[in-house]
Specification:
Layout: H1 8-24, H2 29-36, H3 41-60, H4 78-81, E1 84-86, E2 91-93, E3 96-98, E4 100-104, H5 112-124, E5 129-133, H6 136-139, H7 154-163, E6 167-173, E7 196-197, H8 202-221, E8 230-235, H9 250-261, E9 268-270, E10 297-301, H10 314-328, E11 332-336, H11 370-384, H12 386-389, E12 393-394, E13 409-415, E14 418-424, E15 431-435, E16 447-451, E17 456-466, E18 469-474, E19 477-484, E20 487-494, E21 499-506, E22 510-514, E23 519-522, E24 525-531, E25 537-543, E26 546-554, H13 555-559, E27 561-566, E28 569-574, E29 578-585, E30 588-596, E31 605-608, E32 613-618, E33 629-630, E34 636-639, E35 654-656, E36 671-678, E37 684-693, E38 696-701, E39 704-705, E40 714-719, E41 725-732, E42 744-745, E43 754-763, E44 766-770, E45 773-777, E46 789-790, E47 800-808, E48 815-816, E49 819-822, E50 829-833, E51 836-841, E52 850-852, E53 860-868, E54 878-881, E55 887-894
Parallel strand pairs: 4-5, 4-11, 5-6, 6-8, 8-9, 10-11, 20-26
Antiparallel strand pairs: 1-2, 2-3, 7-42, 12-13, 13-14, 14-17, 15-16, 17-18, 18-21, 19-20, 21-24, 22-25, 23-24, 25-26, 27-28, 28-31, 29-30, 30-55, 31-32, 32-55, 33-54, 34-46, 34-47, 35-45, 36-41, 36-45, 37-40, 37-43, 38-39, 38-41, 43-44, 47-53, 48-55, 49-52, 49-54, 50-51, 50-53
Helix pairs in contact: 1-3, 8-9, 10-11
InterPro entries: BetaGal_gal-bd (IPR048913), Galactose-bd-like_sf (IPR008979), GH (IPR017853), Gly_Hdrlase_35_cat (IPR031330), Glycoside_Hdrlase_35 (IPR001944)
Family: Belongs to the glycosyl hydrolase 35 family.
GO biological process, one term: carbohydrate metabolic process
């Protein structure tokens, strides 16, 4: 990778930004790493600096700094332009200005049976789009064998996105990164002669073209103008030679030509747009007159891949960073990751194991964290006011009159649809502020508000919330404005006992229908004020044929406010921790809801329709009893060391003069065996040296595991003269490097196992080359029924399979219990439940076990198989409930 040269001042700014982020995140992504994987703070800082400096410097550099990079988007074709288009201010989807709130999720990291659940959680969190990778090695793990069925069915996933009325941004590669095994490259690319990755190289482009010929038609038929959800496509990812629309060499020209030939017509771009953990940075104005498209971040990192679960500061830090995008004029962002998921099988890179939780708003097991609700609040606001935000320009000092306290920073977005002024308290303590009313606004009084530390508070002016009804000024926090037929429901929120104020005007006379004492009605002018109390308070007025409902709620209840749709009708529901489904049964509303076990603040449920509101009561009550630990029955063992036995027939193994790196035989796992025959003239101690030996290796001589440790690429072993000694070496790795920014040949990078010459020496004058090697990848068959025996005490000398069963009690539909296989007492390896590979262990992040997707479990007996590379006894393995992620399910119905 070429070095990135930054001016001294800019470099200092980057260092300051990163160190500030590190201090804020000191309890966040790296604390878990230091505790669980032996990383020190220094290494964590270095890694974070390298990744963030490099990605942000490349992704955000302007064309004047680097002629090969910009943040532009190629326009759509004529056929697609009526459905998806853009101007400098915003995206235009189906003819309407649209603010994009996209959720990063990978279908490859979620079982197909759970796709709908995860997507619905994201949709209810305010996201109107998803962004996905189409990992090459997930679809073509073996050359020429394409898999687009089952869990790999991209077409089915995109159809599901469409059915939920969401959009999709598809990142088609051929390179991905994503903390995925080998960055998404198939392993077989390493063994293609002359292949140079991500360059104008015939072998690489031929392989890419064959993959694209299977992949792109699926994406193309799901484009928005063809009835699908796809609105944008990203070619390549984080390529150091081109971001945006720059085409610096034939490689990028080829990708464009091939994608267009295969039907790509929606807007597209290279590599990514504005990635970072704080994409807006310290810029108050993200407008750029040279940019033909709106500002958009394809990777707003929230939180970081070394994290598991919520941390106290997450929701505050990332809430502010989201509002900075909105306030600065960004027209959207993709939260990477909104749901992380799992690295099933051998799909993890070397930094990860099975869990890819990411500290995301929707956890690995579908649980909702505080950051989910922070993102949700910002999302529904941005979408409620997208007519302004997706068509606005920087207001300069147009609203500076609003606040006299210079500690509060003021900026505004101005559009024909209205103005939004953002009041920013960048300090570390809350500030009391007095918001001045606009001049000429009849009856307007200044508003006393408390702006929390780091909060950015929006104030609305001159926004039409319904035909002929204008919201002239709102020095109040607005959660959403929901159209419900001829009723517009405005949800406002604040702390207990705080004051809310709203000022309206209309061409027609106002009529107060509910809460008369809270209004000052001056015919065509209407002033509303109220104090936030415990239960939600409802106020209603009309003008002409249109009606407005004002719903005043506490901030905590705003987080538990949900927008549901049945047919064409919108419903607002307050109270549940989460709503899974809303339906009509015999004309009555039925709500399937859930409450996480760690939610200690249940609230009453109420439904708001176009014409009325009413409470719901629980018609089912979750049971109080729950089993929290399942113990596997009697364990069995099947040694996995047959490959070390001298008498083994290895004639079908891959043969070579010198050892070949792992994967050369087509195996896709993280394990491989090497064998050779060695004869010596003198019995004694010898040193076997390797040119390349990576990560973990264990040596066996004549079928017996040696106590020798791998030191400086060598083993010290004892050999007998007068016989043929069988030397077998078991190798394993923790995942392949994701190859961030790498361009070049893949054959010699990130080699695993053993590769190159091997020598044997008794002393410096007696050195011989060991040749005639055999290679066989894989741990063996975990499901073969033979050779299982009862488990004896103690550990086993070498890799072994262990099998047991556990009994899942009759499933109580009132609970979703999240189960994990706790393997913290084991060595290194993989876990299968009912034939499904949960992924690799030990975990690299602070989580106690491997997540078992609910859809892979069954009532009664379940089969558990563990392959432990170290032969560690599984006697302490348990199946444990993760209480923080588990939840109760219940039905709510009208009284």
């Amino acid at each position: 990778m070429a070095p990135i040269l930054l001016p001294k001042r800019k470099f200092r700014r980057y260092i300051g930004h990163i160190m500030t982020s590190m201090r804020k995140l000191s309890c966040n992504p790296f604390t878990s790493v230091m505790k669980t994987s032996g990383w020190g703070y220094r290494n964590s800082v270095i890694l974070f600096l390298l990744i963030t400096l490099t990605v942000e410097a490349i992704g955000q550099s302007t064309s004047s700094e680097n002629p090969n990079r910009n943040d532009h988007i190629f326009p759509p074709s004529k056929e697609a332009s009526a459905f998806i288009n853009f101007d400098r201010r915003g995206f235009i989807i189906n003819g309407r200005k649209t603010f994009l709130v996209s959720a990063g999720i990978e279908y490859a990291r979620v079982p197909r049976a759970l796709w709908k659940d995860r997507l619905e959680r994201l949709k209810r969190g305010g996201y109107n789009a998803v962004e996905i990778y189409t990992f090459w090695n997930f679809h073509e793990a073996e050359e020429g064998k394409f898999n687009f069925s089952g869990d790999h069915d991209l077409d089915a996933f995109l159809n599901l996105v469409k059915s939920l009325d969401m959009f999709a941004i598809v990142r088609v590669g051929p390179y991905y990164c994503g903390e995925w095994n080998f960055g998404g490259f198939p392993i077989w690319l390493k063994f293609k002669p002359g292949l140079v990755a991500r360059k104008d190289n015939v072998p690489f482009l031929e392989a890419t073209d064959r993959f694209f010929e299977k992949l792109i038609p699926i994406v193309s038929k799901n484009q928005i103008h063809k009835g699908g959800p796809v609105i944008m496509v990203q070619l390549e990812n984080e390529h150091p030679e081109s971001w945006g629309t720059k085409v610096p060499n034939p490689y990028f020209s080829h990708l464009i030509k091939k994608a267009n030939e295969l039907g790509l017509e929606v807007p597209y771009f290279f590599s990514g747009l504005h990635p970072g953990n704080d994409p807006a940075g310290n810029l108050k104005n993200l407008d750029d007159p040279k940019r033909p498209n709106p500002w958009f971040s394809t990777e707003f990192w929230g939180v970081w891949f070394f994290n598991y679960g919520p941390q106290p500061q997450d929701s505050t830090i990332y809430d502010r960073r989201t509002w900075k995008i909105i306030a600065g004029g960004g027209n959207g962002y993709n939260v990477y990751m909104a749901h992380g998921g799992s690295n099933f099988g051998y799909n993890n890179d070397r930094d990860m194991a099975a869990s890819y939780d990411y500290g995301a708003g929707v956890g690995q097991a579908g649980d909702l964290r505080p950051i989910f609700f922070a993102y949700k609040r910002a999302a529904w606001f941005a979408r409620s006011f997208q007519e302004v935000l997706a068509n606005s320009t920087d207001g300069g000092k147009i609203s500076h009159w609003m606040i006299r306290d210079t500690a509060i920073k003021v900026n505004a977005r101005v559009s024909p649809a209205g103005t939004i002024t953002f009041l920013d308290n960048p300090g570390k303590i809350a500030k009391k502020a007095v918001i001045q009313p606009p001049k000429g606004l009849s009856g307007a009084l200044s508003a006393n508000v408390k702006i929390a530390a780091g909060e950015i508070m929006p104030v609305i002016q001159n926004f039409k919330i319904a035909p002929a009804i204008s919201l002239d000024w709102a020095p109040t926090r607005i959660y959403t404005i929901l159209p419900q037929g001829k009723t517009s429901t405005v949800v406002v929120y604040g702390d207990l006992n705080s004051l809310v104020q709203l000022y309206f005007s209309s061409d027609s006379s106002f009529r107060v229908l509910k809460g008369n004492a809270n209004f000052v009605n001056k015919s065509t002018k209407l002033v509303f004020s109220s104090v936030v109390k415990g239960p939600p308070a409802e106020y209603i007025f009309s003008a002409g044929v249109n009606q407005v409902r004002i719903l005043v709620v506490q901030s905590a209840l705003a987080a538990k406010t949900w927008i549901e749709q049945i047919g064409q009708d919108n419903y607002l529901i307050t109270g549940p921790s989460y709503i899974k489904e809303t339906s009509l049964k015999n004309g009555k509303i039925m709500v399937s809801a859930e409450r996480q076990w760690n939610d200690k603040n249940p609230m009453p449920t109420r439904v708001y329709t176009e014409k009325t509101s009413f409470p719901l009561a629980a018609s089912t009550v979750p049971s109080s009893a729950a089993t929290l630990q399942l113990h596997p029955d009697k364990w069995q063992i099947k040694p996995a060391v047959e490959a070390a036995l001298p008498e083994l027939d290895d004639s079908a193994w891959t043969h070579s003069t010198n050892p070949l790196q792992m994967g050369a035989d087509g195996d896709l796992t993280a394990n491989a065996w090497y064998r050779s025959k060695v004869q010596v003239d003198t019995s004694g101690t010898y040193i076997m040296r390797f040119k390349n030996v990576k990560e973990r290796a264990t040596i066996f001589v004549n079928g017996v595991k040696q106590d020798a440790e791998l030191t400086d690429k060598s083993f010290t072993i004892n050999l007998n003269a007068g016989k043929v000694n069988t030397v077998s070496i078991f190798t394993a790795h923790n995942g392949r490097n994701k190859q961030l920014f790498f361009l070049g040949g893949l054959d010699t990078i990130d080699m695993k196992g053993i590769a190159g010459p091997v020598t044997l020496e008794r002393d410096s004058s007696n050195v011989k080359i060991i040749s005639n090697w055999k290679l066989k990848g894989g741990p063996g068959d975990p499901f073969a029924p033979d050779a299982w025996t009862s488990l004896p005490p103690g550990d086993f000398a070498g890799p072994a399979f262990f099998k047991s069963t556990f009994t899942l009690p009759r499933q109580d539909k009132s609970k979703t219990i999240i189960w994990r296989v706790n393997v913290t007492t084991m060595g290194h390896g993989s876990v299968w439940v009912n034939g499904h590979n949960l992924g690799r262990y030990p975990e690299k992040i602070k989580v106690s076990g491997l997540y078992i997707p609910e859809s892979w479990l069954k009532e009664g007996e379940n089969t558990l198989v563990i392959y432990d590379e170290d032969g560690t006894n599984p006697g302490k393995v348990a199946i444990e409930a993760e209480k923080e992620a588990s939840r109760d399910n219940f039905l709510l119905a009208e009284y």
